[in-house]
Design a protein that fits this description.
The protein has 79 residues and is mainly alpha-helical. Helix content is 46%, strand content 0%. The chain is built from 3 helices and no strands. The chain has helices spanning 3-7, 17-37, 68-77. It is flat. The N and C termini lie far apart (49 Å). The model has no long low-confidence stretch (mean pLDDT 77).
Amino acid sequence: YSPEQKNGDNLLEIADKDIVTAFAIEALRLVDHYHWRNYTDDPGKPMNLDDLTRTKPWFAKWFQPGNLYCRQRELYMKP
């Protein structure tokens, strides 16, 4: 059997645009959250959002034109 048959994977199609948007935002939020939690080089170091001691802060990509994170930020900010 292939893994799909052994694991019982399921596929669900959601056609409602509002529900799809809500699921997509939550998925991106979770990915970003865990990416940020794994960002620190030293696991014993406290996590700070305003840690500007790095040469490139964690949030720099969110403001770099052309970066997917920047496009995501602009999408979330649309009225």
